[in-house]
Design brief:
Distance between the termini: 41 Å
CATH topology of the domain at 5-139 and 253-319: Alpha-lytic protease prodomain-like
CATH architecture of the domain at 5-139 and 253-319: Up-down Bundle
Number of strands: 4
Strand content: 5-15%
Strand order of the largest sheet: 1-4-3-2
Radius of gyration: 27 Å
Number of helices: 11
Structural class: alpha+beta
Shape: elongated
CATH superfamily of the domain at 5-139 and 253-319: Cation efflux protein transmembrane domain
Length: about 425
Amino acid sequence: MALSNKEIRITILLVIDTIFFLLEAIVGYAVHSLALVADSFHMLNDIFSLLVALWAVRVATSKNADAKYTYGWKRAEILGALINAVFLLALCFSILIEAIQRLISPEVITNPKLILVVGTAGLISNIVGLFLFHDHGHSHGGNGGHGHSHSEAIDDDQPVEELLPQNVVNSYNETTALLSKSSNTTHSPYSHEPLVTNDYHTTPSSHSHEHTHDSDDHEHGHEHGHDHGHSHTLDSDDLESQTFKSKQKKKTKSLNMHGVFLHVLGDALGNVGVMLTAIFIWKTDYSWKYYSDPVISLIITAIIFSSALPLCKRASRILLQATPSTISADDIQIEILEIKGIKSVHDFHIWNLTEDIFIASLHVEVDANPEKFLVIASEIRSILHGHGVHSVTVQPEFSKNNISLETYQQFTENYKNSD
């Protein structure tokens, strides 16, 4: 199978980083420079990030949702990010222990000139890597339409930095706020009223699980046809939504590039620290000059730790299906309870599937008949839509004294059949 442009760029970066990781690690241990060893571990962080990104490209283009993985592999990058972060934290602990030992009993650096050369070469490799990260072509047009194809293939012109685990994890929080803002500005609560009559069946064969998807949702992992029984025209709301999504895409890319800049800056600081240590040991005769090596290694470790710990926390939060940080489940529940006919709400859950797909499920006890529940379900959906949640499952629980026994039994039977 031929490699895509993106896979080629990631592979080139992997080769460069692997070469410099081995070079820094071997030279660092050979000349007893803990700072150079620590910087090599920092380079190892890049290698793991690129491996996760390459895996994400392969998975996205070769694996779709199936009976075993009904959501597909949408969270593969998050799992990889967590593994990456945990490994980095373990490395930080190892370097910390070694640095403390070096502070107690410093070792002589035998060849500071070689350390300087390797550190300089590492800095150059980071600069080359930055250009490769952002070399993503110019054919971004034509992808912001309103079509309903939900292919999981990754755009070959997509910047490589968007696939790095730290940026994938960060985008979960950033996109939540953007989508919530989009929902509040581009849709009125009843802008999808035809969905009530076409997707909510009012016949006795209606399912009690009201599972609705907004027509703007582009990431369900399957195809949606347009045979909902109503015309699907591109109105002013659609145009406004397209405009916002275009801005959202640019905003996300800007955030990702900012993250890559900070990441490369951290790498560069590590290289500069190694170079300064080498120059200091080479050009001075202080008796305490060898203490600079473990001190610089501690600074590099702090840089790695400052990125690894937040990445670990954010990835864990997503995998634990925590409520998106910009959404208040309590506030939404209060809004839902204000709907006429709802007695209580329980088993209410909101979580991220991907950075731009938010899912909610809830049970509602209603003091109404099944026909009125359809209106209630539409209002619930509108509230959640206003908070950026477009995939909603509502399970009703009816009070028997509000409907006839025959209707209740019919509805219950249909509910069992739907499961």
